[in-house]
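Following up on my earlier thread - several people asked me to post the actual chain instead of describing it. Fair enough. Here it is, all 317 residues.
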Amino acid sequence: MTRGGRVESRHRIDVAVCDSSGAIVDSYGDALRPTAPRSASKPIQALPLVLTGAADAFSLAPHELALACASHNAEANHVESVRSVLARAGSGVAELECGAHSPMDGAAYEAMIRADVPPGPEHNNCSGKHMGMLITAHHMGEDPTGYIRQEHPVQQRVTSHMAEMCGTDLSKQSPGIDGCGIPVWTVPLAELATGWARMADGGSTSQATAEAANRLFDAMVAEPHFVAGTGRSCTRLMTAYGPRVAVKGGAEGVYCATDREVALGIALKTDDGSRRGSELAIETIIAKLLGHEAPPATPVLNVAGTQVGEVRVATSA
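Reply from S.P.:
Thanks for posting it. Predicted structure:
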């Protein structure tokens, strides 16, 4: 980031671009950097929702499948969709174990304040993922209590698919805990990128897994608003690129994407956890893969709206 023509801040970013065999086809920095994928792993975590038959048992529409892969704004249609799916499964928001926080969308938050409505777990940006996990437990006849714990069958299935898609051995580590309470495993960036490539073409996975992954990506690119929401990077990028590109950001400057046409996966991580850095970086890498012009620098404005600098990508310090 520059101000007055001088560099004010730097966001150093490691990037891996891989195919579904695990080959690194492009990289910047440390492509093998161990990384907690955070919410960028949500499409992989949603595979059991489809593979167990839960998505069909409870008649999930594409926007509801997209919501299961989402970090949503808690806009009205996000929240109502979470409630609707849970009701169809004979569940409710009281069973969600993600915790409550205020909507990420400013307008939705202000509306709740005016109405004197406290936030519930359905307003958590991860409630769509939890919705998918919870209804899978119901479909499988499992006690849903504690579905977020590592030893619960829900998380055992999720862990198995993370290992399969990324081609990584998770047996020698203990997971951390994500912001919403779900176990989060550390994987090298290149293996995370490989997982996203395999979500695009199936790689060495079974036909059923490949079809489930394709169904989830189809839902995400068809309903990008339900992956994030108004003003959000994920929604903007998938709206712009259409069905070819699926993307998902995560906390602490993680971002993943895939060019579905050639099944290349991208995974990146900023040193400082900056979303400002990760969002411009992922857009730049996608443009390079697709042969498009690089995105312009992002202007930095002061309070009066005057441009005082810019955020731009450089391939060296």
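The domain at 2-311 is CATH 3.40.710 (Beta-lactamase). That should answer part of your original question.
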